[in-house]
Amino acid sequence: MKAIQVVGYHEKLRQAEVPMPEPTGPYDVVVKIGGAGVCRTDVHILEGQWAEKSGVTLPYTIGHENAGWVHAVGSAVTNVAEGDKVIVHPLVTCGLCRACRSGDDVHCGQSLFPGIDTHGGYAEYLKTSARSVVRLDDSLEPADVAALADAGLTAYHAAAKAAGRLRPGDRCVVIGAGGLGHIGIQVLKALTAAELIVVDRNPDAVTLAVSIGADHGVVADGTHVSRVLELTGGNGAEVVVDFVGEGGATAEGVRMLRRAGDYHVVGYGENIDVPTIDIISTEINFIGNLVGSYNDLCELMVLAAQGKVRLHTSKYPLERFQDAIDDLEAGRIRGRAVLTP
Ligand SMILES: [Zn+2]
Ligand SMILES: [Zn+2]
């Protein structure tokens, strides 16, 4: 089969002819890829940023945002059958460790991450496990939802956690209405009656945010902290969800947070610099967010099937992988690029 592989760091990806994956373990599932999302992490892999952490042996097939049709299953698989439409949770997890048994499979002690530390989905077929596949509603197509498997799942995980404490009448500030942020806004809108205030430097992103459900859009032009304080009666918001996490976003974000509020960190890059006396005297909380669990992905697919979460995609045939990467790097993609073998 055709596969797009990393052959060296600081080198371009290369198309190769590789053996088809086959179920070898009882819980293995081989998926015929319908869509593989092209992610900024893929660019970082090529830059060598993951080389040490993943320990992967080159060459290998990248692509960690996958959806398609079940092609073959191991002898013990009962939850999906050949031909089922599925989206693939990015991790292959053991199901036996303490984290897996509490549904917190993201923190599995023995997980594999196809596309990062083993063969991924920029290919015609991908091997994953029965624990990782979520059946799709008839109304959804693999190529349309593939990119929700990672970027969308991370946004869902943070937004759903934030929504857990938001009551009607509360305010929630979302910083950043880009790729992850615009999914987070749709999720918050679906899960809570809290008032949503979205802050972004880009006026177009703010307009988009309002069109998908934000109650207030605020352009980050230097007056935005005082504007948010005005919108929250001078108190700040009960919850801030920060999809940026760099360029001074956290210092501004903390000033928008109410006493005893929750500050969700999703985007990353800078240090949070808050005096500890401020943390104890106001009882604010800082909460980290990684990618979502299998159950988070199931819930996100329910919202997608209900039409409450939509992702804009640009599709490329598998062979045009280089165009997709170039367009991503040049900022020419609205929403997400998806390879369709
Ligand atoms: Zn990704
Ligand atoms: Zn586990």
CATH superfamily of the largest domain: Medium-chain alcohol dehydrogenases, catalytic domain
Order of helices and strands: EEEHHEEEHEEHHEHEHEHEHEHEHEHE
Q: How many structural domains?
A: 2
- Associated small molecules: zinc ion
So what's the overall shape? Answer: globular
Bin the strand percentage.
25-35%
SS-derived structural category = alpha/beta
What is the CATH fold-level name of the largest domain?
Answer: Quinone Oxidoreductase, Chain A, domain 1
Our measurement of the CA-to-CA distance between the termini, rounded to an integer number of angstroms, reads 10 Å
- Number of DSSP strands? 16
Structure description:
Its EC number is 1.1.1.-. Pfam families: ADH_N, ADH_zinc_N. Keywords: Metal-binding, Oxidoreductase, Zinc. Its cofactor is Zn(2+). The protein is of the alpha/beta class. Helix content is 28%, strand content 25%. It has two domains: 2-150 and 291-340, Medium-chain alcohol dehydrogenases, catalytic domain (Quinone Oxidoreductase, Chain A, domain 1, Alpha-Beta Complex), CATH 3.90.180; 154-288, Rossmann fold, CATH 3.40.50. It contains twelve helices and 16 strands. The strands form three sheets. Strands 3, 5, 6, 7, 8, 15 and 16 form a seven-stranded mixed sheet that branches. A six-stranded parallel sheet has the order 11-10-9-12-13-14, with helices on both faces. α12 links the parallel β15 (313-317) and β16. α5 packs parallel to α6 (179-191). The protein is globular, with a radius of gyration of 20 Å. The model has no long low-confidence stretch (mean pLDDT 96). The structure holds zinc ion (2 copies). The site of one zinc ion has 6 residues, from loops.
